[in-house]
TrEMBL record:
Protein name, UniProt field: Large ribosomal subunit protein bL32
GO molecular function: structural constituent of ribosome
Gene: rpmF
Organism in which the protein naturally occurs: Candidatus Yanofskybacteria bacterium RIFCSPHIGHO2_02_FULL_38_22b
Keyword set, alphabetical order: Ribonucleoprotein, Ribosomal protein
Organismal lineage: Bacteria, Candidatus Yanofskyibacteriota
Taxonomic superkingdom: Bacteria
A Pfam family it matches: Ribosomal_L32p
The family this protein is said to belong to: Belongs to the bacterial ribosomal protein bL32 family.
GO biological process terms on file: translation
GO cellular component: large ribosomal subunit
Keyword Ribosomal protein: yes
Cited InterPro entries: Ribosomal_bL32, Ribosomal_bL32_bact, Ribosomal_zn-bd
Length: 73
């Protein structure tokens, strides 16, 4: 079993852990719907990426509703 060779001071330990803090997300604005999204990803609200529609959000929602109705029967 591994055993620490030397005692580590609290200051050294805290300096090592200084980079483990959570950092705030860097959000960008969707060019289409102006909502905050992560950069380089398709907007989950409108389905646009770089000014082009990549995902049809309305069709996706209809598909989910149909699936729930089938599961409910």
């Amino acid at each position: 079993m591994a055993v620490p060779r030397h005692h580590m001071a609290k200051g050294k330990q805290l300096r090592r852990r200084s980079h483990l803090a959570l950092k705030p997300l860097k959000l960008s604005e969707c060019t289409q719907c102006k909502k905050k999204i992560l950069p380089h990803l398709v907007c989950k609200y409108c389905g646009y990426y770089k000014g082009k529609e990549v995902v049809n959000v309305l069709a996706r929602e209809l598909k989910k509703k149909e699936k729930k109705q089938k599961a409910g029967k």
